[in-house]
Structure formats: structure tokens, C-alpha cells
């Protein structure tokens, strides 16, 4: 008789960690369960084309609102990440081979959903020589072919272990927005983002601007992980030194007792103060609310981002 198989552990690297208490969420952080027809239609299209979304994999609180409007952030290159960040709910382990037909399926779904603006992200693929850069580029080109009027935003890994030239592959495919999240202040990297390097990520964003000064760049952090205000302001300065156009700041929410604990829930007025400070430092666009996520309202934000640049250049 064959022994029953245990389900694959979603976060094997976190199994040994002690449980962290999950504090009760304040009223300003709660959202309604997704039930709308728009939500169901988006879900069905994703399933029909066998596509993953970071909305589901990372447990985003805004999935009901975004999907009801036909917006979804598509996650390419599988559902298994080679990293084990302590804040993230995406599975960790050995990824599968790349699906060469995935870029076409993504492009078909974008066309079917009628998206004006699409966000493409991925897991980290340190197992690949180029970190998945060419797969990103193929996906961008496939979307351009099927939906030439859609604007494209990519949210990429850091390509820390990739061969030289990997980042250039993505930039040469000419997404409209290049996003890479710093995630937190540098002092918390050893415990929050141990597989990454703060100044490498910062340099990645700066390099995008060097390769294509016209490309919008974007980055975000979470608060409530244990950082202080001065640390957040320093990250703003670092981003501006790298010529980042758009900054997002959102509340960290703990996916499970094994994940990094929530240090505190940041009040909405603190987010408003962060937004004011960021605009004062020269960002073209800032989104700072408890429920802000990298691709939350990305389409509307892109329109405002483009308008802000034109206004700055005196062309509005």
C-alpha cells in the first residue's frame, strides 16, 4: 500500500521559524470579499488561458476591486520562487521549466480583457542564466503585437545572479513603465529580503534611466515592518538620486504566522505625510495609502504620470 503524499509545503524555508502573532487589522485596512460579475469574468479568463496572477499568489487585499474592473497583474514564469523573502506569500522552491507558449497566452488574455494598461510581474528565477529577462521581453513583444494600443508596465526581479546584459534585454523591449520594488529600508534587508541587495536594486533602477531616459521608472516599499520615518525619507532620497519617477508606499500585511511580523499598522494620516514629503522631493507621481500596492490603480496612475511629465516639461 502506497503511503499518502503530504501536500507540498508552500514555504519550506519558513517552517522552522517561530510563529509570529498576527495583530487584528484596524478598520481602515479591511476590504470586502470579491463577488462581482467583473471579478468572476476576470477570474474565468485567467483560468481559461492558464495564467497566474500575483493578485492571488501574493494574497493582495485589492483583488476584488481590481478584478471587478478587469485589471489583473499577470505573473509569468511560474508560481514557485527561488527566493524566500520573509514578507512574501509566493511559494518557494525549485521552479518548473519555462512555458514557451506563455507570452502568447498572456497577450491573448490582455486582448480579451481589453486592457488599456497591463502589468506583468514574475517570481525570482535565479535558476535561469538571464533571470527570465528574455521571457519578459518576449511577453512584451507578444502584447505589443496583439494589443498595440495597450501600455505595458513590468515589475521585474533584481537580476542579481543573472549574466551581464539581462536587464538590457527587458529595456530594449520598451515597456512603458519599468518597476522594481526596493520593498523596505536597507537596514531591514537581512531579515526581510535576505536574498537581495539594497544598493544593487537601487542601481538597477538607475541603470534603466541610463539605458532609456524616456522610460518611466517606478519603485515601492512597505511600511509597518519595523522601519522608522527617517529611514523611509532616506529611501525617498535614494530613489530620487536614481531618478525614479513614481513611488508607492503601502502597509505590510502578514500572510501567515510564519512570515515577518507586523511591527505596527501605520495610520492614514502618516501615509498622507509620506505622500507630501515624496512630492516635495520631486517625484512625478506618488501613491501612499494603507492599501497601496505596486499595481493598484496602475492604469489611472500611468495616465497621471504621463500628464505630470508633460506638465513638468511645459508641454501640457
From TrEMBL:
InterPro entries: Aldolase_TIM, Elp3/MiaA/NifB-like_rSAM, LIAS_N, Lipoyl_synth, rSAM, rSAM_sf. The keyword Transmembrane helix does not apply. Binds 2 [4Fe-4S] clusters per subunit. One cluster is coordinated with 3 cysteines and an exchangeable S-adenosyl-L-methionine. Keywords: 4Fe-4S, Cytoplasm, Iron, Iron-sulfur, Metal-binding, S-adenosyl-L-methionine, Transferase. Its cofactor is [4Fe-4S] cluster. PROSITE patterns: RADICAL_SAM. [4Fe-4S] cluster 1 binds at residues 55, 60, 66, 295. This is Lipoyl synthase. GO terms for molecular function: lipoate synthase activity. SUPFAM superfamilies: Radical SAM enzymes. It comes from Paracoccus maritimus. HAMAP family: Lipoyl_synth. Pathway: Protein modification; protein lipoylation via endogenous pathway; protein N(6)-(lipoyl)lysine from octanoyl-[acyl-carrier-protein]: step 2/2.
